[in-house]
Design a protein that fits this description.
The protein has 8 helices and no strands. It is mainly alpha-helical.
Length: 185
């Protein structure tokens, strides 16, 4: 366990120091860590209005409904886990270069951003109605969580576990969504 904690520290230290002297580094990290998640709202709107036929519109609406459900489940699980398991953020525990994205009073584990982005991304991917959107959203979620490690506000294990839980929620919601769609026919 100590080895994993030390490895977590070494990774976040290297990431938070990487390119630190570059003039635009913090702006790029901030964009990916804090602003890119809003693209998920645009993606949901794009998916919602993407259907041409009544059947395609129904699939689009079902997919967005499932995305929202996955997002809400992820929020609930994040709140529960943060109450049960508190882990100080890397910038609180170690002397690191970090971006002031969150306060030190909030738990680092698991990453809420990871869970709340991978859950809807996984849902879209596993439902399979919009495979390109699913892949794009998974890529964007990955960029966000990597940026949060570079920002010094999460350890790699925080975002890895958060992403895994989010994918699990996405798989569960997509499975439930598919079974509901079959039952309604």
């Amino acid at each position: 366990m100590d080895f994993l904690r030390h490895l977590d520290y070494l990774i976040v230290k290297a990431a938070s120091e990487a390119g630190r002297t570059e003039p635009y580094r913090d702006a790029v990290v901030y964009f990916f860590a804090e602003l890119l998640p809003y693209f998920f709202i645009l993606a949901a709107i794009g998916i919602y209005f993407s259907g041409r036929t009544p059947r395609q519109k129904e699939k689009a609406h079902d997919t967005v409904f499932a995305m929202v459900g996955a997002f809400l489940l992820a929020i609930g699980l994040v709140w529960l886990l943060h109450d049960v398991w508190f882990r100080e953020r890397p910038f609180v525990t170690h002397q690191l270069h970090y971006l002031k994205l969150v306060g030190p009073q909030l738990s680092s584990f698991p990453s809420g951003h990871a869970m709340m982005l991978f859950a809807p991304a996984g849902t879209v991917y596993f439902i399979g109605n919009f495979p390109k959107w699913g892949k794009i959203l998974l890529l964007l979620a990955t960029l966000v969580v990597v940026a949060r490690v570079f920002a010094g506000v999460h350890y790699l294990s925080d975002v890895t576990i958060g992403a895994g839980l989010g994918i699990g929620i996405g798989k569960l919601v997509s499975w439930q969504s598919k079974s509901l769609s079959r039952d309604m026919r």
